[in-house]
Amino acid sequence: MSSVPRLLFLTGLLLLAGCAPAEEPGGQAPHLIVLLTDDQRWDALGAAGNPYIQTPHLDALARDGVRFTRAYVTTPICSISRASLFSGQYARRHGIHDFATGFTDSAWAQTYPALLRQAGYWTGFVGKFGVGREMPEEAFDVWHGLPGQPHYEQTDVAGRPVHLTRLIGEQAAAFLREAPPGRPFALSVSFKAPHVQDGDPRQFIYDPAYDGLYADVTIPSPETATPAHFERLPAFLREGTEARERWKLRFSNPEQTQRSLKGYYRLVSGIDAVVGRLRHVLDSLGLADQTVIVFTSDNGFFLGEHGLAGKWYGYQPSVRVPLLVYDPRRPAPPQDRIRHEMVLNIDLAPTLLDLAAVPVPAGMQGRSLRPLIHGETEEAWRTDFFFEHPFDHPGIPRSEGVIGDRYTYLYYLDQRPPFEMLFDRASDPHETENLVGDPAHEAMLTRLRARYEVLRAAAE
Questions:
Q1: How many CB atoms lie within 10 A of CB 375?
Q2: What is 405-447 written as a DSSP string?
């Protein structure tokens, strides 16, 4: 981001010219905290009905706020999804399709952190940035961002060992305490957890303080985590793929499976503790009633379903994520605290801007969730979305498609001829039976092929 200093200079001029923070009628604009996890699937949360995982603080956030049961990412891989979260755009529009490419100056100027800062917000970033090789340190008032895939085992300022999740929590809490009074802040907290430590045989490196957590529990494997379900996949998804190679590191025998599942859950519980701590800090500072908190993830995660690990595909475990929003300005009495509309990662940026009363750029393709958060009825909501995974990797077949209320249609681009999948999730919730070629579903397949072309063009 070579011209970030120029962007800062222009922002300063706007502030000097009197561009004060946008305010809600009758009061100051809300503070904003965005908590983003890495690889957390939608059901790795007690509030989502998981009887094994311990997430009391996130469950409380869900009770106090709004939980979206059908939140999705448009691309299930961290760099592309994070670019979509910042920009409110599909990958086809923002053009970031790998780990090396970052935002151009003009593109960054249209992201939610840049627009909030331009509107007068005090902005901070803590944790894994995840987009491009160059870190935009000067684009935030406070920067504790980390490039690439940071290591879990860190040291604090005194040189003492500290787990990355705990360190991120400490830095986020410090931002809250040091934020200038009388000015709204926007803090983006980006966890590495529960992502594995790539290249380390331990994989899920959790805080040693959680070593005893889940020790006396046997966490069941997913229903489709069987050899028979793996064999039902087409050959190009079985042979030589990253998803299968990583499965071998995590789920190839019962002992390894339990170690992986418990490590994954312990990492999530570590995040939960940070959420509790940050809410406590807000309370102690008298800011809880002025602060909107958003919690979500950059993509889901296979825990052995279909004999796979990782993400990258249009299956539900890969594309579905948690989404919790706490807005203390929500109308009372509480209503509609659980929303079932289909919402997307590209909705985050326009939502944050809308909540802050900052104009949403026309180039953003997502839709503000503010009406849903505040319990209003939105009659014409989306019933499907365009799925895309353009990342070019020999072990990850590229795919696109349509994910709707009931059907999933996937189109694998690299096969010759292109390979299609069609799942009816109403009768087949685990997506095990490909209905392409079934005469009873030919009409639906034709409709979804046409819908795919329409949504694909609209994502440009």
A1: 16
A2: SSEEEEEETTSSSPEEEEEETTT-TT-----TT-GGGHHHHHH
| Distance in angstroms (rounded) separating the CA atoms of residues 40 and 136 | 25
Q: Which long-range contacts (CB under 8 A, 24 or more apart) does 56-62 make?
A: 56/272, 56/276, 57/272, 57/273, 57/275, 57/276, 57/279, 58/271, 58/272, 58/275, 58/295, 58/322, 58/324, 60/276, 60/279, 61/275, 61/279, 61/293, 61/295, 61/324, 61/326, 62/324, 62/337
The pTM of the full predicted model, rounded to 2 decimals, is: 0.94
CA–CA gap between residue 312 and residue 304 (Å, rounded): 14
DSSP 3-state assignment of 12? helix
| DSSP letter assigned to residue 3 | T
**CA-based nearest residue to 85, from 122, 125, 137:** 125
> Residue ranges of the alpha helices (H) in 3-101?
4-16, 56-64, 78-87, 91-94
pLDDT digits (tens, 9 = 90+) for 200-232: 999 999 999 999 999 999 999 999 999 999 999
Q: pLDDT by residue (tens digit) across 6-20?
A: 333 333 333 333 344
268 vs 207: CA distance, rounded Å = 11
Q: Does residue 377 register a pLDDT over 50? A: yes
